[in-house]
């Protein structure tokens, strides 16, 4: 049995970026641990979910439900405050430091402690842009890179080929009208270029678990007035198309050389090399 630790900024990030890989690893008998840096108290949602403290409780319950659907053995919250997407103070109302303002060495030390405790074989963080640039996501990259440095445990940076992402958003737009503030151009600059991808994981057999993980985060699927948010739009995509768009997950390894690997635990095999040439 190997151990994989998946490090994310907020509850629901795991559902979108790595839930298929998590479910695949768990189904294969590996130990899967999910670490979130924050409780997601500043997530965008309907006011029916209450104030940030109420929303935090909801989102932590949602991430546990998501983890249960994926076969995750343990969920850990590092306890930092959500930084949100707008101006906020350095500390939240309870005196906690915003994750984006946290000392990188301190946060990496907390993550490293979990990695060592779990005897992790690999762990995941985010690419240098933090995907779409959320300050907490950028911080996940910094903290993950530092934790990899101090522990020597290989890190894979969860990402998406940006050209495929834009295609997926265009497909979703056929079934759902995005809000006026939605900026598709920002996604054309987000995540990673196709040629940077070092690991591509086939998760088509884990689609049921991935959809369950997404559905678990109900608070992140609605806005005031009953309007849907992006997560709900993705779940509205018909299954055949959904399977095509979400049937693979991608990672970048800062140290990987050679053809694209199809296993987060093992280097490329000759079969992988042959398949990659055929593509």
UniProtKB/TrEMBL annotation:
InterPro entries: GlcNAc_PI_deacetylase-related, LmbE-like_dom_sf. It comes from the Bacteria. GO terms for molecular function: hydrolase activity, acting on carbon-nitrogen (but not peptide) bonds, in linear amides. It holds the Pfam family PIG-L. Keywords: Zinc. GO terms for biological process: glycoside metabolic process. This is N-acetylglucosaminyl deacetylase, LmbE family.
């Amino acid at each position: 049995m190997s151990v994989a630790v998946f490090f994310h900024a907020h509850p629901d990030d795991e559902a979108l970026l790595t839930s298929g890989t998590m479910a695949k690893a768990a189904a294969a008998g590996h130990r899967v641990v999910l670490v979130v840096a924050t409780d997601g108290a500043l997530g965008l949602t309907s006011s029916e979910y209450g104030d940030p403290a109420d929303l935090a409780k909801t989102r932590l319950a949602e991430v546990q439900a998501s983890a249960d659907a994926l076969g995750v053995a343990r969920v850990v919250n590092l306890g930092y405050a959500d930084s949100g997407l707008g101006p906020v103070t350095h500390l939240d109302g309870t005196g906690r430091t915003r994750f984006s303002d946290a000392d990188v060495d301190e946060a990496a030390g907390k993550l490293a402690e979990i990695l060592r405790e779990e005897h992790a074989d690999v762990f995941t963080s985010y690419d240098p842009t933090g995907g779409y640039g959320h300050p907490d996501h950028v911080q996940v990259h910094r903290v993950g890179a530092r934790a990899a440095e101090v522990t020597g445990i290989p890190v894979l940076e969860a990402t998406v080929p940006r050209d495929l992402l834009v295609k997926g958003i265009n497909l979703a737009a056929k079934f759902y009208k995005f809000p006026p503030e939605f900026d598709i151009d920002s996604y054309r600059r987000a995540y990673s270029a196709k040629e940077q991808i070092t690991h591509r994981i086939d998760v088509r057999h884990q689609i049921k678990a991935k959809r369950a993980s997404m559905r678990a985060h109900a608070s992140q699927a609605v806005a005031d007035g009953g309007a849907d948010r992006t997560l709900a739009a993705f779940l509205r995509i018909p299954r055949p198309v959904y399977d095509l768009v979400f049937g693979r997950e991608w990672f970048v390894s800062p140290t990987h050389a050679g053809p694209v690997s199809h296993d987060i635990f093992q280097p490329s095999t000759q079969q992988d090399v042959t398949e990659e040439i055929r593509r």
